[in-house]
Amino acid sequence: MLTIPWNSTTGWGTPKIQPYAPLQLDPSSTVLHYAPTLFEGLKAYKGKDGVPRLFRPDKNMERMNRSAARLAFPTFTGDNVTQLIKKLVEIDADWVPTDPGTSLYIRPTMIGTQAGLGVGASTDVLLFVIASPVGPYYSTGFKPVKLYATTKDVRAWPGGTGGYKLGSNYAAGVVPQQQAAALGYQQILWLFGPEHRLTEVGTMNLWVGLKGTDGVLELVTPPLEDMILPGVTRDSILALARDHASGKRKLAGLPDKFTVSERNLTMPELVEASRNGTLAEVFGSGTAAIVSSVDGIGYEGELVKVPCGEDGLGDITRVMLREIVGRQTGDIPSEWSVPVDTKA
Amino acid sequence: MLTIPWNSTTGWGTPKIQPYAPLQLDPSSTVLHYAPTLFEGLKAYKGKDGVPRLFRPDKNMERMNRSAARLAFPTFTGDNVTQLIKKLVEIDADWVPTDPGTSLYIRPTMIGTQAGLGVGASTDVLLFVIASPVGPYYSTGFKPVKLYATTKDVRAWPGGTGGYKLGSNYAAGVVPQQQAAALGYQQILWLFGPEHRLTEVGTMNLWVGLKGTDGVLELVTPPLEDMILPGVTRDSILALARDHASGKRKLAGLPDKFTVSERNLTMPELVEASRNGTLAEVFGSGTAAIVSSVDGIGYEGELVKVPCGEDGLGDITRVMLREIVGRQTGDIPSEWSVPVDTKA
C-alpha cells in the first residue's frame, strides 16, 4: 500500500510504499465522526504482452482533486500521484491477473485523520492507495439487471455533493438497495424531483438509447450539473459515441444515423418510449462493471419493459464494452491506455 | 473508552471499558470509503452536590437507533447502552469538571468496520463511546453571532438523510462554513428551495421569535419532516415553551401571550419581519452551545438586522438557557436529569 500524510503546518509528507497493514486511528479521528473521506477507483489491466496498463488515470486524479477541494482537503499534482501508483503497480505486478476480464483494482483514498471532535477543516489528512486483484465482472455471461425506480429516497440534489466522489454519497444508498433487492430488483434507479427525472443507476451513470421518428438512434445521458458523478467510463463512452456520430471514427455495430445527447429524461418519458417501441436500450456505466445492461424497470407498481439482445447486451452497450475493453487491455491502441514499465 | 463490537453472524459482542487507545482499522474498512458512520453527543454535568448527571440520554439512544436503522446497522436496547455509559462516567467521574458551564462531553459512535470494497450492508460494526471534559461554551460572555444565509450550498433535502445524525451530513458543511467565515460571518444559515426556506444554523436547530399584531409572541422552529435533525435541545425547548404557552408550567421572563409553532418560514418573510419590527429574536440550539443568539443575517448582499438584548441574549433565548442549564445541573428538579451513582 502507498501512504502519503499531510499536515496543515508541514504540508505533504514523504510517500511510502509498505506492506498492507491496519491503519491506527485515534477514536476521535474526524473521518470516523463527520465522514471527511473521498475515494477513486481505477484498474490495471495486463494485455497480451504482459504489460499492466492503467486506464485514463489523469481523469481519476483530476476528479480526486475536485473532491479534495470540496472537503477542504489539500490538493496535489495528479501526475505525481499517478507516478506513485505506477510504482505500486510495478511492485505488485505479479498480482495483476492475466485472464480476460480480470484486473488489479486500485483504490486511492483520502481521509481526515486528526484527533478532535470539532467540525472544521482537516488539519491532518492521509492519502492512501490500496489494490486488489479482481475477477471478471461477468464470469457467467452477461445478465441484464432489473432496476427499481425509487420515488422515496433521493441520492443527490442541486447544491449537494452528488457530483463529487465523496464517501458521504454512498452510505445512505445501502438501505434503499436492500429494499429493492427484497422486491426482486438488482439495482436502484435514482430519480429526482416531482417530474421523476432519471439521474443514476446504483453507483453507475445512466444511459438510454432512443429510436427517433427520423430513424436516428439517440444515446442519452443526464447532463453533469451538480447531481451526476462525472464518471471516467461515462466520459469515455461520450467521447467514443461523439466520434462515431461526427464521423471522426466510425464504430462497427452502430448505425450511421446516430446522435449523442447530454439531456434530462423523466420516467414518464421512458414509460412512453417503452410503450410505443422507441426505447432501444438502457444501461449503466462504471469502472467496476464497465457497462451493465437493463431489461426492466419497476416503477409505481408496474414493470417497464426494456429491450435487450439475446446475448444480454443492447447494441450500443455491446459496442461500447468492446471498444473500452480493447483500449483497457491495449488491443486497441489509445492514448487512454497508460503502460506501467515493469522493467525499470 | 467503551467498545461493543457487532458481527452479522455472531451478533453483539461483549462490551469492554478500557483505556483510551487508537483503533486498528483495515485500510479497506467501509467507514473509510463509504462513510457508514453515525454519532451522538451528550453531556454529563456535575451539580452542586458533586453528582454527575446525564441530560435525557434516552433521547440520544432513541435517535441513535433511528440512525443505525438508516445505515443498515444493528439496533440495540437503548437502556443497556445508557447503563454502560453511566458505568463509563462513573469510572471517569474525576474527569467531570465542576465549574459552572463545564461538563464531560460524551460521544457515542457507530462505524462499519469490515474489510472489503463492496458497497453493501455492514457485516461488522463497532459501537464505541469516548468522553472529554469541555469548558464553558461562553467563557467570555454571550456573543451573538452573524449568520450567512447561503443560496448556493444545500445541507439536506426531501428523501435525503438530514433528519438522521449521520456522519455523512457533516463533511460537506466545512467549505461553506469557511466561505462564510471569510466574509466575516460565524455560521451558515442553511436554506432550502427556491422560496429560501429556513432550515438549520450550522450544526444547530433554528428558532425565530415573532411579535404578532395581536401582541402574542410566537416562537417558531421548522417542522421535523426529513430535512431537520431532531435535536434533544430542540425537543426540550419545545416542551418547555409549550408548557409555558398552555399554562401548565409558566416560565418567568416570558410574556403570558405566547405561542409555539413548528412551521416553515422563508428568508423573504424574515427580511420583512426585520423591516417592520415584528422580528423579536433568532437563535440556534444544540448540545454543544445549548443556545446561540443571532444578531444579523447576511442574505443576498445585505445584512438583515436581528434584535438582541444587551447581555447578548434575546428574551426567549435567555429563559431557555436558564431553564435547560438548571435541569442539566440538577438545580431544577426534572426527570430529564439522570444522576450517575458514583458510589456503586
Task: Give the helix/strand layout.
The structure is a homodimer of 344-residue chains.
Chain A: E1 2-7, E2 11-12, E3 16-17, E4 23-25, H1 30-34, E5 37-39, E6 42-46, E7 52-55, H2 57-70, H3 78-91, E8 103-112, E9 124-134, E10 145-150, H4 174-182, E11 187-192, E12 197-201, E13 204-211, E14 217-221, H5 232-246, E15 258-262, H6 267-276, E16 279-286, E17 290-299, E18 302-305, H7 315-329, E19 337-339
Parallel strand pairs in A: 10-11, 10-17, 14-15
Antiparallel strand pairs in A: 1-2, 1-3, 1-9, 5-8, 6-7, 6-8, 7-19, 8-9, 11-12, 12-13, 13-14, 13-16, 16-17, 17-18
Oligomer: homodimer
Could you give a short account of the major beta sheet of chain A? Answer: 9 strands, antiparallel
What is the fold named in CATH at topology level of the largest domain in chain A? D-amino Acid Aminotransferase, Chain A, domain 2
Q: How far is it from the N-terminal to the C-terminal residue of chain A, by CA?
A: 19 Å
Reading off the top of the CATH hierarchy, the class of the largest domain in chain A is best stated as: Alpha Beta
Q: What is the total domain count of chain A?
A: 2
Percent of residues in helices of chain A comes to: 10-25%
- The tally of strands of chain A reads 19
Order of helices and strands of chain A: EEEEHEEEHHEEEHEEEEHEHEEEHE
Approximately what portion of the residues of chain A adopt beta-strand conformation? 25-35%
Average pLDDT of chain A works out at: 96
Greatest chain-chain contact: A-B, 56 and 56 residues
Q: What structural class do the secondary elements of chain A suggest?
A: alpha+beta
